[in-house]
Amino acid sequence: MTEERSPLSVYVHLPFCARKCHYCDFNSRPGSAEQRAQYLDALKMEIAGRAEMLGGCDVRTIFFGGGTPTVYEAGELGGLLESVIEPRPPASAVCRTGFQPVGGSVEVTCEANPETVDLPKLRALREAGFNRISIGAQSFHDDELTILGRGHTVEQTEEAVRAAREAGFENVSLDLIYALPGQTLDRWRETLRRALALRPEHLSAYGLELAEGTPLFARWQRGEIAPVGESEHLAMREVTLNVCEQAGLRRYEISNYAVPGRECAHNVTYWRNEDYLGLGAGAWSYLGGIRSANLREATEYVRAIETGDDLTAYKERLDADDGLAEALMMGLRMVEGLNVAALERTWGESRVREMMTRARPLAEMGLLNLRDGRIRLTNDGESLHGEVCLRLT
Q1: Which of 91, 130, 175, 262 is least surrounded, with the fewest CB atoms within 10 Å of its CB?
Q2: Where does residue 223 fall: left (phi above 0), alpha (psi -120 to 50 degrees), or beta otherwise?
Q3: Separation of alpha carbons 205 and 213, rounded Å
Q4: How far apart are CA 89 and CA 208, in angstroms?
Q5: How far apart are CA 162 and CA 181, in angstroms?
Q6: According to the model, what pLDDT value does residue 261 have?
Q7: Which residues of the chain have pLDDT under 70?
Q8: How far is the C-alpha of 24 from the C-alpha of 111, rounded, in Å?
Q9: Buried b (16+ CB within 10 A) or exposed e, 312-346
Q10: Is 134 helix (H, G, I), strand (E, B) or coil?
Q11: Cα 339–chain centre separation
Q12: Where are the alpha helices (DSSP H) in 112-184?
């Protein structure tokens, strides 16, 4: 008999991109056509193996991320999606090569950069089963895109969104980055205005982090650029909230806004600490209280698949203390916060009561809201999310 599982969210990592952006420290890099093809073959083998291992299970969301998935042709991405989802088999059959969708409500996202898509490609992606497109806009000023090392222009972003609409995408998300070197509040407000004029259903807005090892970090060390000050950073965050709400996008997570009902269901899985399966190089999974990660480097990942070696680079079963800490770190990113009674049922009454004892002084400081049986960050608390979570644990 196979173990009964709740529906999974499935993440598929495609690490290749056309160019490495100046701020990026993600698991991504440019790759040749041969490398991309080898990786795709290996990924399909992992999908089949994972499906067999899990005995077939339902999926509720699928997310193709990267890298830039759309450096692949639409037919390649469609074929990969077919390997993830197979038609539901008869009740007596066991899924061996893919996963079954839950009804017709599966959210299927593909990340894309504007310069890697056009109308025919987007039409092919929509026909293949992708119903949500997440476009990496980042800025609506060409000089800022140059600073970030992006490979597209503002005009290409606007054209990509128009093409996505014409292709039939009714769920479009835009990614933006604020607090760029030299960026003013007015320029950020203009980026928001132009982004929202495209009427996306979802918008992600993250403050720039200067990650060690990136070209932007090196420029900062040489004194060529200066990060935006803390007060300006907070002001940009506040402007984002106000402008998005005026446009009908509700903030549901620290950095994410959506038309009600269009929240990113896949990412909500992470924030609610629910089960997910990661496929591909460096992909993380959380299944039945066990957190694990695949080999990070694409070449090592492909070699392990081809030789039948273990893909696992990291694996641990979270104990109750670590599990509660993880639930707090992720769940407090959500505006809805966490249900205290549910935490007690999952992680133990005594452990959660101790946590709530630590929470009360933070609430008196205006960093937490403890009402209606829930624990939530206040606006001030959100800017200190990591520190608050550490104090709670």
Answers
A1: 91
A2: left
A3: 23
A4: 46
A5: 29
A6: 95
A7: 1-5, 56, 86-98, 100-104
A8: 15
A9: ebeeeebeeeebbbbbbbbbbbbeebbebeebbee
A10: strand
A11: 23
A12: 119-128, 142-148, 154-167
C-alpha to C-alpha distances, 18 to 128, 174, 184, nearest whole angstrom: 23, 19, 29
Computed on alpha carbons and rounded to an integer, the radius of gyration of the chain in Å comes to 21
pLDDT of amino acid 59: 87
pLDDT digits (tens, 9 = 90+) for 348-368: 999 999 999 999 999 999 999
95/90 Cα distance (integer angstroms): 10
Q: Quick one: angle between helices 185-197 and 230-246, nearest 10?
A: 30
Name the residue among 55, 67, 163 with its Cα closest to residue 118.
Answer: 163
What is the rounded (10 degree) CA torsion for 151, 159, 116, 217?
Answer: 30
pLDDT of res. 56: 64
Residues 6+ apart with CB under 8 A from 110: 64, 69, 70, 77, 125, 130, 132, 133, 134
Q: CB burial class (10 A; 0-12, 13-18, 19+) of residue 222? A: exposed
From residue 231, give the alpha-carbon distance in Å to each of 177, 182, 192, 378, 387. 17, 14, 19, 18, 18
Structure tokens belonging to residue 326:
């993880």
What is the pLDDT at residue 54? Answer: 80
- Give the per-residue pLDDT at 91: 42
C-alpha dist (Å) from residue 175 to 137, 140, 300: 6, 11, 30
